[in-house]
Amino acid sequence: MTAALPLSALENAGEFIPRHIGIDAADEAHMLSVIGEASRQSLVASIVPRSIARASTMQLPPACTETDALAELKAIARKNKVLKSFIGQGYHGTHTPGVILRNVLENPAWYTAYTPYQAEISQGRMEALVNFQTMVTDLTGMDIANASMLDEATAAAEAMTLARRSVKAKGNVFIVSGDCHPQTIEVIQTRAAPLGFTVKVIHSSDEWLAAIGQDDYFAALNQYPGSSGWLADWQMSAELIHSKGAALILAADLLALTLLKSPGEMDADIVVGTTQRFGMPMGAGGPHAGYMACRDGFKRSLPGRLVGVSVDVHGAPAYRLALQTREQHIRREKATSNICTAQVLPAVIASMYAVYHGPAGLARIAQRVARLTAILAAGLKQLGLPALHATAFDTLTIDLGSSEAAQAAVQRALAAGANLRLLRSQCVGISLDETSTRADLALLWQALAPHAAQPSVEALEGAASLIPASLRRTSTFLTHPVFNTHHSETAMLRYIRALSDKDLALDRTMIPLGSCTMKLNATSEMIPITWPEFAQVHPFAPADQLVGYAELDRLLSDWLCQATGYAGVSLQPNAGSQGEYAGLLAIKGWHAAQGNAHRNICLIPSSAHGTNPASAQMVGMQVVVTKCDENGNVDMQDLQAQCEKHSANLACVMITYPSTHGVFETHVKELCQIVHRHGGRVYVDGANMNALVGVAAPGEFGGDVSHLNLHKTFCIPHGGGGPGVGPVCVVEDLVPYLPSHATAGLKGKVGAVSAAPLGNAAVLPISWMYIRMMGAEGLTAATEAAILSANYISVRLKDYYPTLYASANGHVAHECILDLRQFKETSGVMAEDVAKRLIDYGFHAPTLSFPVANTLMVEPTESEDLQELDRFIDAMIAIREEIRQIENGTWPQDDNPLKNAPHTADSLLAGDWSRPYSRQAAAYPLASLRQNKYWAPVGRVDNVYGDRNLFCSCLPTSDFE
Ligand SMILES: Cc1ncc(COP(=O)(O)O)c(C=O)c1O
C-alpha cells in the first residue's frame, strides 16, 4: 500500500487545472523530448526574453475546485437583487424559450463555434444569421441588414459614421432627439468628438423641426417608439431631411415593429436597435445583438459582418460572409468600422426566437404588451394620472407633479419588488414587456396612487389601443417558411440540431486558429451566466441591486491587473476592437490634457491586425505603417526613424506582443523606451496574452495600454463570432481616462463606449470562474503548456511545412506560422486548398493568410491533449504526401483531393467517378476517419459569385430542392 496522502491533497483544490490543460505529465515529457528541451520551464525561459520576465508571481487567490468556485460565485451573485423591471430604456424582460435556452445558449455546439470565415463548416450558424438578417430586414422594412452589432448605442454611433460616408450633405452636425435612450446619446457623443462632428441634442418637436430645416447637418436620429414611449410618424421628417441631402436614422424596437408601420415605410435610411427582448435575458446590459439595417444604396458602406448567399462548386446554394472588402481585416484604416467580433450567439438566439414564435406568435406577444399598456394607461387616467403622451406601444411616462412624488412612487414600487424609471425629476417611466402580467398592473397602480380606489383590469380590458390608426402596421413580415414551420418544440429542437450538425465547433475538434485562442470553455464556467441573479437584472437598476456585479467587476479587474501589470481596468468594451478604441481614447485624452492635442500620429507595424489601424482612424489619429524585418520582427531602425520623423506629433505606437508573427521579439523593452522618449505612449494589443499570463506582463515591460480579449485568453466562448469582452487596461496616469458612463452615474474624462456600464456583463462570470479555478499557478502552467504545444507542432511539422518565423533559437511563442508559399510553384496548391482539405480530415482550418498571405497560422492552445495534437499533425503530414502526388505528376494540378476539397457525401455518391483518385482517398484519407467522419454539407463555396450576386436574406426553399 502506498503512503496515505494528506487530506489537503485528497481535497484536490487544483482539480480543475488538469481538466483545463490537455497534456499530462507523460505527454509533456514526450513533447519535450521531441523539441529537445529538459523541462517546460526551461523551454519557456529559452523563449521569453529575460528582460521582460515577470518580476513577481501574480497575486491571485489559490486555485479552488469547480464546486467551491461555483459556491463562491453564487454568494457574490446573491448580492444582486432580482426585482421586476419596468425601467425599459432599451432593456426588457423576456422569456427565453426553454428549447432555445438549452439547445443554443447552453449548447457548446453553438457557443464554442468560431466566426464563419470557413464557410463550408459554418453553414448552420450562417443559416441562423441569414434568418436574423431576414427578420431584421422584414421588421424594419429596409433593404438589407447585417449579422449583428455590438449593442444599440454603438449601432447608432456606427449609423452616424455610415451616414457621413453615404450622404451628400456637407454639414458636420449630427442631430439626435433627446427622446433617444440616454446611453445611446452618450455613446454617440463619445464617438463624435474625435471625428469632429457636432452633436445637437433636441428637446422638443418644435426644436426637431427647426433643426432638420437647417442646412448644417448630415443625419438625424430619432427613437421609435421614443424612450419616453411616444409614438410618431417620421415620414414627413424623412422628406425634409432628404431634401437637405441628409439621412434619417431611426432606433427602432423590433417587437413594437410587429404592430407598427415600419421605418422603411417612413422612408428611413438607416435603422438600428437591439434584439435583446427576442429571448436574451437583460444580463445587466449584455450580451445582446444590436442590429443595423439600411437602404440598398448604403450597403457597400455597411459596418459589421454580413452573411450572403452564394453557390458551391456543385452549383448548390451556400452561405458565406459577404462584401468582406469593407471590413477592417482587409481595408484596415479605410474600413467602414473596426468591428471584428460581434454578437453572433445572441443574434442566433434572437433569430431562433423569431423562428419559434413566427409572425403570429410575435404579434400576439406584442399585442399583449400593447393591450396591457393601454389598460395600464386607462387605469392611471382613472387615478388622475394621465400619461404624458396619448400614443404608446409599451412605455408610459407619468408626470407626478413633483420630484418628491416621483421618488415616493419609485420607493413604493421598490417595496413591492419592482423598479420604475425616474425621468426628468418629476416623471416616472413604466415599460411593460413579454413577462408583464395582470398582477403587475395592479402593483403599478398601487405604487403610483396608493390611496385611491384601485382600477380593475377586467373592467378596463376594452381600453382603446394607444397605437394610432395611421401608425398600425399593414405590411406582412416573416413570411418565409422558416418562420412558419418550426412552432412545435419537437420541430424546433430538430431544426436547431440540424443546423448545428452542419458545423464544426470545439465540441467536435480542435480549432487551431492562430491569434484566436480557441481553448476550453468549461461547463462550470458557463453555468453561472444563466443564474437569474446575473441574467435577470437591468443595467440601470439602482446600485444597491447590483452589488454582486460591482464585486465581480472589482475582483475580475484586480485579477486582470495582476495578469497584465497595469494599474486600472475597464470591463466596459464589449469586444477587443472596442477595447482598442477605448485605449486610444485614453491616450488621446491624456495627450490633450498635457496640452498636446496635436499629437495624432499612430505608428502601426505592417503585421498588425486590421482592427488596430481601423480603431486609430476612429479616434481621429493618422496611421503611419512601420516595416517588419525578414524575421517578422518590428524593424527597429524603421520604427526609430518614424519616431524621429514624427517626434513632435507622435501619439502612440500599437504593437502586438508576442507579435502576430508568433514570436517574442527581444527588443520590445527598447521599443517602448524609444516611443516614450519621443513623447508617445505604447499600446500593446493583448490578443496574444495567452502567451504571457504569468510569464511576462505588458504593464511591466513598457506598455501603457492594452486590451485583452476575454473571449480568447480568459475562456469566454467565441459564440460563432461573439459575444466578446475587450477590457482596456492602463498604467496609473491613464486611469482617469478609462471609459465612464454618465447614464449609470459614473463620471469621468472619457465618455461611455458601450450601451451598458459593464458592457457584456453577463458573460464576465466565465472569466471569473476560470481565473478562480486556475489560480496563479494554473494560469502560468496554461501559458507554458500553450507554448509547449505550439513548439511541438512546429518541430513535428518542420520537415513538411517550415515555420516561417521563429526566434534565434528556433522556437516560437504560442502559435506558429506554417509556410505553404512554396507549393504554389511546385504543385499549384495554395494555403486555402490545405485549409479546405483539412475539412475532409475533420478539422477546422488554422488561420488562413494572416498575417502573411498563403500561410497557415496554428495555435493549438493549452487545452488540447497530445492525441488531438497528433491527430492534427498526422492530417497535415498526410496532406503533405498528397501534395507530393501532385508534385510528382500522379494527380493533375487542377484535379486532386486538395483542389476539390471539401468533398461532400453527395459528390462522392455521384454515379460517375472520373477523378484521378478514389472516392475512398477523398473521404477517408486516414483510416481513423471511418470511425468519426465529419461531412461538409456543401462543397467549396464560390466567393466571387456571392459578392457579384449579393443576396442576404432567406432563400426561397425551392432553391434547396
Ligand atoms: C491581434 C488582434 N487584435 C485585435 C483583435 C480584435 O478583437 P475582437 O475580435 O475581439 O474585436 C483580434 C481578433 O482576432 C486580434 O487577433
UniProtKB/TrEMBL annotation:
Q: What is its EC number?
A: 1.4.4.2
Repeat is among the record's keywords: no
Record-annotated Glycine dehydrogenase C-terminal domain positions:
782-903
Catalyzed reactions per annotation: N(6)-[(R)-lipoyl]-L-lysyl-[glycine-cleavage complex H protein] + glycine + H(+) = N(6)-[(R)-S(8)-aminomethyldihydrolipoyl]-L-lysyl-[glycine-cleavage complex H protein] + CO2
The broad enzyme category this protein falls into is oxidoreductase
Question: Which CDD domains does the UniProt record give?
Answer: GDC-P
Q: Which UniProt keywords apply?
A: Oxidoreductase, Pyridoxal phosphate
Q: Which SUPFAM superfamilies match?
A: PLP-dependent transferases
Q: List, for all copies, the residue spans of the domain called Glycine cleavage system P-protein N-terminal.
A: 19-448, 616-739
Q: Which Gene3D superfamilies match?
A: Aspartate Aminotransferase, domain 1, Type I PLP-dependent aspartate aminotransferase-like (Major domain)
Query: Which InterPro entries would you find in this protein's record?
Result: GcvP (IPR003437), GDC-P_C (IPR049316), GDC-P_N (IPR049315), GDC_P (IPR020581), PyrdxlP-dep_Trfase (IPR015424), PyrdxlP-dep_Trfase_major (IPR015421), PyrdxlP-dep_Trfase_small (IPR015422)
Question: What does this protein need as cofactor?
Answer: pyridoxal 5'-phosphate
Which residues are recorded as modified (N6-(pyridoxal phosphate)lysine)? 712
What does this protein's UniProt record list under function? The glycine cleavage system catalyzes the degradation of glycine. The P protein binds the alpha-amino group of glycine through its pyridoxal phosphate cofactor; CO(2) is released and the remaining methylamine moiety is then transferred to the lipoamide cofactor of the H protein.
Q: Which HAMAP family match?
A: GcvP
Q: What is annotated about its quaternary structure and interactions? A: The glycine cleavage system is composed of four proteins: P, T, L and H.
Which family would the database say this protein is a member of? Answer: Belongs to the GcvP family.
Q: What is this protein called?
A: Glycine dehydrogenase (decarboxylating)
Identify the species of origin: Comamonas faecalis
Gene name of this polypeptide: gcvP
